[in-house]
Amino acid sequence: MSVKLKGIDVSKWQGVIDWAKVAGDGVKFAMIRLGYGSKDGTACGVDGYYQKNVEGALKNGIAVGCYFYSYALTVEAVKKEAAFVIQQLAKYKGRILYPIAFDIEDKTQAGLGRSTLTAMVTAFCSALEAAGYYASFYCNADWARNRLDMNALARFDFWLAQWASAPTYTGHAYNMWQSSSKGSVAGISGNVDMDTAFVDYEAVIKKNRLNGYTGESTGAGAGNGGNMSERQNFVNTAASFIGCKEADGSHRQIIDIYNAHKPLARGYAVKYTDAWCATFVSAMSIKCGLTDIIPTECGCGQMIQLFQKLGEWQESDAYTPQPGDVIFYDWDDSGAGDNTGWPDHVGIVESVNGSTMKVIEGNMSDAVGRRTLQVNGRYIRGYGLPKFKGGAASSGNTGSKPSQNTGDASKPAAALAFKVGDVVQFTGSTHYTNAAAASGPSCKPGKAKVTAICKGAKHPYHLIAVKGAGSTVYGWVDADELKAIGSGSISVGDVVQFAGGPHYTSANATGYKTSPKAGPAKVTAICKGAKHPYHIIHTNSQSSVYGWVDADKVSK
Question: How many CB atoms sit inside 10 A of residue 544's CB?
Answer without folding.
Answer: 14
